[in-house]
Design a protein that fits this description.
The chain is α+β, with helices and mostly antiparallel strands. It has one domain. The chain has four helices and eleven strands, in the order E-E-E-E-H-E-E-E-E-H-E-E-E-H-H. A seven-stranded mixed sheet has the order 4-3-8-7-6-5-11. A hairpin with a 2-residue loop joins strand 9 and strand 10. The longest helix has 11 residues. The two termini are 29 Å apart.
Length: 175
Amino acid sequence: MGSSSSSMSDSRSTGVVYTKKLYFDPNADSPEGRDYWITDSELRETLSELVDVTERIIEVRYYKHPLGSWQLMDNVLHHAFIVFETNAWWWSIEKNDEGVTIQRSKDFDSVCHRYRRTKRKTSIGKGVEMVKKASGSATVMELINHIWRKNYLNQEYNFLTYNCQHFADLLYEFI
């Protein structure tokens, strides 16, 4: 696995350790394969070595799904994440109480309907739902630089004030 040199902090609202790291899976459609844990200081260099940073983002989509199987409605309480398409790949990016996750795949379902190679949470009558979509205007490198400049990896996750929905909103607007 990747580096483990960053500090950890406790999330007071959930008790989960927020890693301040980015989890990157460059082949999310493969049953096997290497994944990476990347710190903020390693972000730009490591991703530049692993991906074609000149790829232009063609389209960006905003998705949501229930937080758990117990949920009947997801109007307010839901997990939000971004899926974007380049000429060669499908990507997803999201934040939760563990950190930021980026997945890349040739297969759309592997990034939209799976999180770290496991099926995303659904409930009765509620699954993964696209909320909106738009044309992309950034490159992968511009997105990586934006994440680094805005210090998104080090910003603590907070269920009320800075959560997955806030993160997805910020990235959707940027892309």
